[in-house]
Amino acid sequence: MGYRVGVDIGGTFTDFCVFDEDSSALRTLKVLSRPDAPGAEVLQGLDEIERRFAISPRAISYFTHGSTVGVNSIIQGTGAKLCLFVTAGFRDVLELARLKIPDPYDLFSRRPPPLVPRDRVIELGERMNAAGEAELVPSDAAISEALRQAERAGAEGIVLAFLHSYTNPAHERLVKARIAELSPSLPVFCSADVWPIVREYERTITACIHGSVQPRVSHYIGRLEAALTARGVAPAPMITKSNGGVMTAAAGKDRSIEMLLSGTAAGVIGAGFVAQRSGFSRVMSLDIGGTSADVALLRDGMPDFRSGELVGRYPIYLPTVSVSSIGAGGGSVASVDTLGVLRVGPESAGSTPGPACYGRGGERATITDAFAALGVLGSGGLGYGAVNVDRERALAVLAPLAAGLSRDVAATAEAIVDLAVANMYREISRLFSQVGEEPSGYALLAFGGAGPMLGCLVAEAIGMEAVIIPETPGVLAALGGLLADLRSDFVRVVFLDMTAEAMGRLARAFEGLAAEARDWLHGSQGHSGEAALTISGDMRYRGQSYEIETPLEAAWIAAGDQAAITAAFHAKHAEIYGHADDKAAVQIVALRVVIAGRTPKPALPAREMTRTHVVASRKLTVTHRGADIAAGLFERRELPPGSHFDGPAVVIQDDSTTWVPPGFTGEVDAYANLILRRSGMERSSMT
Amino acid sequence: MSTLDPVTLQILKSHFEAAAESMAYTLLRTAHSAFVKETEDFTSGLTTPCGQTFASPKDLGATWFIGLDYAGAIEAIPDYRPGDICVTNDPYSGFVCTHAPDMHLWMPIFAGERLICFAVGHIHNTDMGGAVPASLSRALTEVHQEGIRIPPMKLVDAGVMNDEVLRIMLRNVRMPDQNWGDLKAQIASLKTGERKIMDAVARFGTETVCAAMHGVLDLADRQARRLFAAMADGDYVFTDYIDEDSPGGVPCRLKLCVQVRGDEAVFDFSGSDPQLQSALNMPTGGLPRHILPLVGYNYVVYSLDTTVALNAGLLRPVRCILPEGSVVNPVYPAATGMRSLTCTRIQGMVVGAFSQAMPDRLPAGPAGGGGILNVRTTDSRTGRLAMASINPITGGGGGSAREDGQDGSNSFLKNTPIEITEAEVPIKVLGYGLVPDSGGAGRHRGGLAAQMTFQLFSPNSVVTARNRDRVRFSCWGLEGGQPGATCGFLRNPGTAGEEALGNTDVVHCAPGDVLMISASGAGGWGDPYTRPLAEVLDDVAQGKVSEAGALAYGVVIEAGILDEEQTLALRARPGPALNGPAPGGLTLDPARLAFETVWSDAAWDHLSERLFALPVEWRFFMKHQVFAAVSADAAAASDPVAAIERAYASLLLSYPQVAPRTIGAAA
């Protein structure tokens, strides 16, 4: 037996979650991230774990890791210098993108600059048609000339993205092979290998992001492996993925793009685990950090998946845990303009200088400062003692805003919080209308540094009855990594009309994909346990230009059951859009397979509960709805399972502060999660 | 009405926006047609009981209708009961709907007995019947050809669907299932709005919610006035043209004088052409705050201050003068289907007028005129008929004091991936990309045009290109920046049979035909000779400016080698005064300047005065007659006004049945 360690590097802090396989105890830690020296914080954290908890690196039996090294290289523009080879006539695939400018009302609105500038996009004489038939095979001379241009441009890598390569990648492969002969050390990435979807911009930008981050990420993982080995960590690190899964370090070096958004994804996986275990089947996770709030919907512990999520300002089209990002966090700055209009965000004080009350140079009032002024923050540490709250500084920076609004400072602080909550209400309303559901059927799981502070207020605004604050709200991504399965996505564009003749081709495509998936799991990942294969089709009515991912059964495909497949699509269409057209012709554009191999999970057993009403021995004065009220002050670790209490209360712990307004009651469940409910609300979803 | 504290107002503003956005997402999610789901040609919103729109979604749907006034439609219905939903698509009933494909719905929301607001919205139906599929063609001349018109009426009366009007409507359109599907989605959207507003009422109380509706309108009003107050008082005149006022016609002149006085402004469109015998008319009813002439105004205000509340309050400080019987205020039964072309041109003009007041704060002329491409052809392998929207042909944004214009596009339009087009339509795309040198030169270059080249393979293929323009006259440069390039449209380019298609909007193609179509480029900002050499060289390296094109920047490059000596010498001289900047720091394109040697401002003003003295039905006819006579008049260039007067006098003799009103009595 040993210790399972999950590490997630975030923008400000690096989070650690340590699970003791013997005692089932969970320990957590945060250290400041080191964007200047990625990986250093991991080693620092291991030292700290050894020092604080007397856990030696040699005792670590499983290690998962998520890092922002790839995202940072895109945001900072420090990725590899790429050349992009495209089909002649289509040099501007990145320049034109999908045309739409981000804010059409704004005459100055801009798309992001192309990831690969036009002078490094090289046209190659080649053409494949939509049926996958070669119309023009690239000549050796043309390839050599393009390569010469790329070398003159100082290319550190080449991305090949030719029209219709999703259906026949032969030309990309041929050019790659030729370059390997001519310039063997130059990395070459085929768009059909990175992610073979139809739609040239989407496939090309995804391949370019991959080509841009892969060298750096691969180097980073290599160094980390060596450093961990040197410290005596025996297991090879597992790398967390944007799809909510993990992969081996070797796979991470090769498929670097799959880890880019793993931090938010792992947080959602952690949230799903916590919520499901506590008996909540429909949950909205709300992860509020310094600059943004990430919202995801979970049903039975499963998140939604989506493609087109943003890495910096660029979209990638691999399946990713679906998270909506709201530009409002603890560090969002409040301001009052000359017309007396109060605004909160989108500007953020971030982690540096951070809120004024952190005393690290912040001069502008933030949401966190508002909570400090109201008396909610300031009784406990933040970030494991890394930060202390200076209420006087908060009051000082709020004073000018109070003057602008002609209110007192406390009322100004409340206004800032109310407006921040109203902004989140707006964004969350959008999210629910997009999926066509009502928030009232969901519980809110709040985490991240600022989530527990705002959770109840947001729940009240949006009409949710229960709020879950996990035991370790600050390190849920690290926990999510520990819980993640080996998981990978596979896609094949088939573009078939749903006819009897098409069934054979569909079956062959499925067999190919399934074999590829099993090979990944049992081969490259060395997984010997059972595998779960999930199948879906990107389907649509002929003439629609968007597809709906429809869950399919292997048996239908094997039996050529056209009726079952079509019926599944109609049903899914009706579920999402409220209508279906049984008479319309149906197409299947792409077939998808997800393979998952279960990793050993930490057993986090239910603890014994003794229902005890607890009353705080200490009281805080908190300003609420214009009045100073006495709120109970609890230390989270002093609240055993089964204890319950009434708001108003403030619950403090190492990495976050929970605000329980009047009208809410709190209870610690058998898994040490804090469940907050609006008074008078049914205990509907507890098991 | 109680006044609300500003914080509660901001909070309710978020709730209103949440309601409008939830309406939009509901519509987008449940609609059937591509027009709604992909083109996002729809709106949703909330209005006060008298029709002032106080909330709209910001990043979903059409961007033109912020502040659309529903009063005309609302007032057409005598009484409202809970559960009512009303409808109209008639451009001449209340001037809410602006062309027949736009189906507007509005639903009263009651708090108890009190009607507190309306949930509203529209969708662009793919077809409303009429003379041509999709109901839109430049060539149509009266509104009756543009589809069935539903005057304002209750579609749902106290919760009961009016099946009879529905049956009449669906019987008269080409794709009834789609219209019906979208209509259901619209109804769902309105109900979502009602639910969200009732949530707010439950939480904040009726009085507070109602006060906040007016409060957000007042806020926008104050925000807009703040911008005017910071602007110098003055008259800012801007004139532009549509190349053709009808298929193969003569130019359509649009004239605008923005009169800024204190914190208000008048937009005077006097001098714009009489209403047209084509579908380019913009039905406004002469309403002083109709949204169609004010779309560009919303963009200007928002671009200067992106924190403004986007609602009808922004329009309060302004008032339009829209002469009756003109292209900006046609009288029934003028066709209005293609009013979007005119509206787009006026958007640019409004920006152009304000740019004279604030040349450092607004961009030069935007690209446009590329059109929206559709194709109808047959798959020679399967025999299946394929009809599809291929792409909008777009161009960039104007250069500005801040930076170069965006290349390739400047709006909310999206393209269709080439791989999808080729998989679905039996055409082959030979190229899709930017047109080098199409952006106007400047300290900050105008955005480049996009161009698409494709080949058709079967007989009887038809390509339509709606909203084509800017083939003849280009857009303007600002502060010494140069105009953008004009649009192109060629059949079989580079072959012996090459044919220029100009502004043609319907092209019949033979097997093997290649079409090459491009938008215009956008104007540049500032003296191109002051553009840093490194930026010019980078543009050349990127292929956005050719070696020949670099000359416009005073940069001499040959075969990849910079001639420093010549460049230095060239750039030491004053900027390339193509024609000397026009008043207001504008640089106009040579074709326009040549045209205006005869058709000067004074000549147009004179013609306009004469035409507007005539009965409405004579104006367009007489304009064309005068144009024909003047172009045949060798002496026109030396004194165009006299030439017009000669032509006009002789026409009055030929048509004694026309009695012009006495000049001076003209409205």
UniProtKB/TrEMBL annotation, chain A:
<dbReference type="Pfam" id="PF05378">
    <property type="entry name" value="Hydant_A_N"/>
</dbReference>
<protein>
    <submittedName>
        <fullName>N-methylhydantoinase A</fullName>
    </submittedName>
</protein>
<feature type="domain" description="Acetophenone carboxylase-like C-terminal">
    <location>
        <begin position="499"/>
        <end position="674"/>
    </location>
</feature>
<dbReference type="GO" id="GO:0006749">
    <property type="term" value="P:glutathione metabolic process"/>
</dbReference>
<dbReference type="InterPro" id="IPR008040">
    <property type="entry name" value="Hydant_A_N"/>
</dbReference>
<dbReference type="Pfam" id="PF19278">
    <property type="entry name" value="Hydant_A_C"/>
</dbReference>
<dbReference type="GO" id="GO:0005829">
    <property type="term" value="C:cytosol"/>
</dbReference>
<dbReference type="InterPro" id="IPR002821">
    <property type="entry name" value="Hydantoinase_A"/>
</dbReference>
<dbReference type="InterPro" id="IPR049517">
    <property type="entry name" value="ACX-like_C"/>
</dbReference>
<dbReference type="GO" id="GO:0017168">
    <property type="term" value="F:5-oxoprolinase (ATP-hydrolyzing) activity"/>
</dbReference>
<dbReference type="InterPro" id="IPR045079">
    <property type="entry name" value="Oxoprolinase-like"/>
</dbReference>
<feature type="domain" description="Hydantoinase/oxoprolinase N-terminal">
    <location>
        <begin position="4"/>
        <end position="181"/>
    </location>
</feature>
<feature type="domain" description="Hydantoinase A/oxoprolinase">
    <location>
        <begin position="203"/>
        <end position="489"/>
    </location>
</feature>
<dbReference type="InterPro" id="IPR043129">
    <property type="entry name" value="ATPase_NBD"/>
</dbReference>
<dbReference type="Pfam" id="PF01968">
    <property type="entry name" value="Hydantoinase_A"/>
</dbReference>
From TrEMBL, chain B:
<dbReference type="Pfam" id="PF02538">
    <property type="entry name" value="Hydantoinase_B"/>
</dbReference>
<feature type="domain" description="Hydantoinase B/oxoprolinase">
    <location>
        <begin position="5"/>
        <end position="528"/>
    </location>
</feature>
<dbReference type="InterPro" id="IPR045079">
    <property type="entry name" value="Oxoprolinase-like"/>
</dbReference>
<dbReference type="GO" id="GO:0006749">
    <property type="term" value="P:glutathione metabolic process"/>
</dbReference>
<dbReference type="GO" id="GO:0017168">
    <property type="term" value="F:5-oxoprolinase (ATP-hydrolyzing) activity"/>
</dbReference>
<dbReference type="InterPro" id="IPR003692">
    <property type="entry name" value="Hydantoinase_B"/>
</dbReference>
<protein>
    <submittedName>
        <fullName>N-methylhydantoinase B</fullName>
    </submittedName>
</protein>
<dbReference type="GO" id="GO:0005829">
    <property type="term" value="C:cytosol"/>
</dbReference>
